Amino acid sequence: MASKYSIGVVALLLGLMMAFQFRTSALPPATVSADRVQGLTMELKDLTAERMSIEAEIRDLESRLSAARKGNDELEVALRKEIERTKVMAGVTPVEGPGIEVILRNPPPTDGTLGGGGDHLFTVRDEDLLRAANELRAAGAEALAINGQRLTGSSEIRLAGAFINVNMNRITPPYRIQAIGDPEALRAALEMTDGLAAALREWGVDVEIKTHPHIEIPGYQGPSTLLFAQPVRGQSAKTEGS
């Protein structure tokens, strides 16, 4: 009987020891110290401040990038407008606007020929067309064309045998000059007393001048590549240093 009690006591002690061991291993981890908590709190504040600073820097950079893109877009628009304006001034692009149309018809033939103007004195010449173009330019014409040939700074109007060439293209009468500008100012430049229109009419040329609220003038279609002329190297530096 005593051995049975001894075995029971041993079993009870083993059970208590195992229960205590289980409770000991199931205890929560040790509590973090106050100093560690304070350190972690300060570290969190520093990281938060750093994150906010980085976010502010990102917003600033994005704002600068947006402004730069906007500036580039505006610059591109300005450059395109300048290119278009230069092309119009060079005469290589079609234009439209108010202006006048001048039609010059040679006098009817007096010697049985079909061409009109039996006497060359009464035939429209290249110099007459050139004078008309110069008069219109001086009156403010912004674009000119003769029989559909756009006049540019390099255009030539010259007699070639019995015909007149403009931009190396043969034109025949009647000669139709189109000019874009102030219609009244352009008309007045040709209709002035003892002006070109009066002189041509005196020679027998039929001069008809019409004002139009809208005229279309084509662009120059001839060659425009320079074969021999080249920019002078260092010219800009010389100009700045002078």
Your description of this structure?
The structure is a single chain. The protein has 242 residues and is α+β, with helices and mostly antiparallel strands. The protein is built from 6 helices and 8 strands. The chain is rod-shaped and about 150 Å long. The chain starts with a helix and ends with a helix.
Task: Write a brief caption for the model.
By secondary structure, the protein is of the alpha+beta class. Helices cover 48% and strands 19% of the residues.
Key structural traits:
242 residues; alpha+beta; five-stranded antiparallel sheet; three-stranded antiparallel sheet; 6 helices
* Quaternary organisation: single chain
Let me know the largest β-sheet. 5 strands, antiparallel
Strand order of the largest sheet: 3-2-7-1-8
Any low-confidence stretches, pLDDT <50, length ≥5?
114-120
| Distance, first to last CA | 130 Å
Structural class: alpha+beta
In round numbers, the mean pLDDT is 80
Number of H/I helices = 6
Q: What is the radius of gyration?
A: 47 Å
Q: Outline, from the CA principal axes?
A: rod-shaped
